[in-house]
Amino acid sequence: MLGRHADSLFWMARYLERAENSARRIQATLHHTLTRRTGGDEEWEAIIQSTGNTDTYNDQHKSFVMANVINFVLRGKANDDSVVSLLSKARQNAKSVRNALTQEVWQSLNESWMSGKEALKRPVKIQDLPAILENIIKGSSVFRGALYGTMLHNDIFNFLRLGTFIERADNTARIVGFRYQRLLPTASLSLGDTDYSQWEILLRSLSAWKSYNWVHRGRLDPSDVASFLIFDDRMPRSLLFCYGAICKNLTDLETSYGRDYGSAHQARETLKQLVGGKQSDIHRLSLREFIDTLIHANNDLSLAIAVEFNLER
Asked: What is the pLDDT of residues 171-224, one digit of tens each?
C-alpha cells in the first residue's frame, strides 16, 4: 500500500475517534451539570484543560461557562480540534482513499460530516445539545459497524483500526492522567463521598459507566475505577484492550507484508508493561508515572508507525 493511502486511512480513523471522544466528554459533563447542584464551571474548565487547548480558549473567553466551552469544543473556528473540524478532516482523508472503502463505510462517514456541519453551523442551543451529541456518537458507531461488517479484514482495515485504537488509548490515558489524584488508593478517604460524582464523569466520558457498574455491582471505589479503565481487557476503551487490538493489527500487517516491524515490537513492549501492571496490583503502582510513561509510549508508537509505513504526516 502507498504510504499516503495508509496515512489517510490512519488519520481518518483518528479524527473520527477524536470527534466521538470530545462528544462523549461533553455528554458526561452535561449529565453532571443537570443532575448536581454544585460543580459547574470547574468541570467545563476540566474539558478544556484535558485537551491542551487552554491558551487558545483563554484568548477568546474570560470564563469557563457551559455555553462558551460547548461552542469552542464543538464548532470553535480557532480550535483545530473542534468536532466540526475533525469531521471535515476525516471526510477529506476518506475522499483521498474513496476507492479503498465500501459504499457503506463512505456513506456513514459522509453522513456524519453532513449532519455535523448542518447542526454546528450556528451557536449551539442547550436544548439541542443532547441530540447533537447523540448524533455525533451514533455516526461514529455506524462507521465502526460498517467497517466490521463490509470491509475486507486486510491491510486497509488494519490501518483504520490502528488509527482508532492509538487515538482511543491516548484519550483514555490522558483522562485518567488528568484525574489521577481522584483514582489513588487513598482517594476514598481523602476526598469523601462528594467525589463520587467525579468518578461518574470519568466513567461516562469513556462510555464505561454501565459496564463498570455491571462488573462492580454499583460499588464506586477509586482503585477499582483505575483498574477497570487501565487493565480490564473486556472494556473496549481500557488501555489493555486498546493495546491488545493495536498489537493484533500490527501483527496482521507483519504477516501481510512478510516482515518484522520495530513498531510492532514497541507495541508488544507496552502491552507487556500493561500486563505487568495488572499483575502487580494498582495499589503498588505509581499511577502518575505509569500513565505518563504510557502516554509517551503511545506517542512514540504513532511516530514509529509513520516512519516505518511511510505515512506522510
From this structure: 999 999 887 766 665 555 444 545 677 788 899 999 999 999 999 988 888 888
Helix axis angle for 222-231 and 239-257, nearest 10°, is 10
Please report how the helices 262-280 and 222-231 are oriented relative to each other, as an axis angle in degrees rounded to 10. Answer: 150
At position 281, the amino acid (one-letter code) is: D
Report DSSP letters for the chain, one per residue. Answer: --HHHHHHHHHHHHHHHHHHHHHHHHHHHHHHHHH-SS--HHHHHHHHHHHT-HHHHHHH-SS--HHHHHHHHHH-TT-TT-HHHHHHHHHHHHHHTGGGS-HHHHHHHHHHHHHHHHHTSSPPPGGGHHHHHHHHHHHHHHHHHHHHHHS-SSHHHHHHHHHHHHHHHHHHHHHHHHTGGGGSTTHHHHT-GGGHHHHHHHHHHTT-HHHHHHHHTT---HHHHHHHHHH-TTSTTSHHHHHHHHHHHHHHHHHHHTS--HHHHHHHHHHHHHHHHHHH-GGGS-HHHHHHHHHHHHHHHHHHHHHHTT---
Q: Give the tens place of pLDDT for each residue, 240-265.
A: 999 999 999 999 999 999 999 999 99
Contact 108, 142 (CB under 8 A): yes
Full-model pTM: 0.93
Grid cell in block for residue 204: 461516562
- Residue 176 and residue 291 in contact, taking contact as beta carbons nearer than 8 Å: yes
